[in-house]
Amino acid sequence: MTFRPLAADELTEAIAKAALDAILIIDDEDRLVYANPAFEAMLGHDPATLYGERIHDRIAPERYRAAFRQGMRHFREHGEGPVVGTMTELEALHQHGHEIAVELSISRLALHGRWYAVGVLRDITERKQAEDELKRARDQFQSLTENIPGLSYHCQFDEHWTALYVSEGAEQVTGYPAEEFIHNSVRTLQSLVHPDDTGYVADRINTRVAQKRGWDIDYRILHRDGKVRWVHEKGRAIFEHDGSVAYLDGFVHDITRRRRQAAFQEMVATISVDIVNAPMEDTKEAIHRALERIGRFFEADRTYVFEFQEDGRLMDNTHEWCAQGVIPQAGRISEVPLEAYSWCIEKIHRQEPVHVPDVEALPPEAANELAEFRAQSIQSLLMLPLATDGRVFGFYGLDVV
């Protein structure tokens, strides 16, 4: 058999007819001069009924037509336009009146001294539906995670747990905005873990991933405010079909308050047992140990007990614990008239706590208290009444100096 290559016209026509995309050619008056079979399959119009007609009036939704007419005027004069040589996503009008999503690319063609526009339309309805469904799923996921207190993450299984998604709850938990973690733009999730816990956390997660099991762990992080926070993390690995790790999903929330409440209850129980079981001659030492535990728990510089004398007019600083470097005050504070510090003592007698976050903000009627607190370099304090059978017999307090 003798090989005969196709002529250029035959080849062009064969390609146009075989193409799945709609191909149309319009002249500089916006009249249709050619359309391939895919045009009818896509938009429902028989091209033979549209030849010589202004095509944009038939297949362009009304909202586009003014812009198309303006563009065609420029194209007629210069063979150029804002969409020539570009690819655009828009909607086309079907013969039956509904719109379909299409991807349009336009190129120009010069024939017999006139400009022609060659348009290729690709039906992207299914792709747009898939994109819309994906967006809805993402929006639902984001809405869900943003309304749950805590930090949700979606990250890679690498050295730094490179974050692909972090919920807005990140700022509540860590002090840092979520966007600073995305693709490690400013910092990594891993960098927040307390240095003493990094090995434990990494080992636990790596072990669970290797076992294809989720993890449920407590550990400490370094908050933006410089304080240490306890968090609870629950997560799992998502695997590819070949068994490799695709990514990690998890949730982290702050359990500092819960941990401190549990630790406080444990401390109170320890103090109670210690004092109750202490021999009479060791009561003072037991109270001192209690003050030390309280001071260290609340990170105070000084804790103390004041007891009122029987006549109810004087008080003594009977017990005290001081952090390292803090000057003790108990030795110089005894037989202090209650009326000298009436602003504080009146609250204590009413069995109210005295909380002073900033001594410099004390009211004028607390002038005596302010002078004494300044003398001791106290910045803030808390005093709590001591009472038995409804009778107040003193108070204990914590100072930050």
Regions with little confidence, pLDDT below 50 for 5+ residues:
1-8
Element string (H = helix, E = strand): HEEHHHEEEHEEHHEEEHHEEEHEHEE
Kindly name the structural category: alpha+beta
Rounded mean pLDDT is 86
The overall strand count is: 16
Task: Give the termini distance in whole angstroms.
Answer: 104 Å
Any idea what the CATH architecture of the largest domain is? 2-Layer Sandwich
Any idea of the CATH class of the largest domain?
A: Alpha Beta
General form? elongated
**Widest β-sheet, arrangement of strands:** 13-12-11-16-15-14
The CATH homologous superfamily of the largest domain is called PAS domain
Number of domains: 3
Largest sheet: 6 strands, antiparallel
CATH topology of the largest domain: Beta-Lactamase
Beta content = 25-35%
Helix content, binned percent: 25-40%
Q: Rounded to an integer, what's the Rg over CA atoms?
A: 39 Å
Helix count from the secondary structure assignment: 11
